[in-house]
Amino acid sequence: MGERRDDDHHGTESVDERISVRLVETLAAVWSKIREHHPGVPGVVLLAAPSPRRELNVLGHFAALRWSARQKKGNHFHEVVVVAEHLDREVEAIVGTLIHEAAHALNFERHVFDCSRSQYHNRQFKEAAEELGLTVEQVLHYGFAKTRLTEKTIATYAIEIANLNDALVHRRKPVVIANPAPPKDGNDENTGDRDADNDKSTSRHLKAICACDPPFIIRVSCRTLRETRIICAQCGEEFGIR
After folding, report:
1. What pTM, to 2 d.p., does this model score?
2. Mapping DSSP to helix (H, G, I), strand (E, B) and coil, where does residue 164 land?
């Protein structure tokens, strides 16, 4: 990202760059508490990461043996990700996501298959999730995938929930345009120039395009492009000045 002017920081405040460290530390403290109560749950590389393209319905994931130690060849570690855009939820729900992923990790360590590639959560997942303190509901297409903390579990993790509440930051969700204006026939550059000349109301707006071929076109203010992300629902890419 390029250099910005001093007056180009709308809606921001001075922050300590360790804000991300505090976030991960408090998330890790939750995982440590899970392991304290359930020693069969393994240690993991824990991350707060942006959502993959078009997957804002995913709250987190467990990936087995995804990391390797540089100094100790042959040592591999599991990965748990909580999706950064969904850290704006209730703190109890975020802790619930961590325990949900812990159930997958526990089953992996036990050599128990609990989830298909299509994300169908079977009864083995349900049993592990309940063992770790979750209530489980069955949902269409995804099996026993809907989980939440029991009241007893909320009490057990009360300190971690309070600490996480103080440390939470989240990544802003993109604005998804489901049906952007279709590309016009002919030379788009000429069309754009004509619009700018004939409609003074758009003179302060920029023409932004997506990655479709041909691209869809929207007109937005400089501030909108600067302060949010606008995603095309067709190609899944961000609109920008290209």
Report:
1. 0.70
2. helix
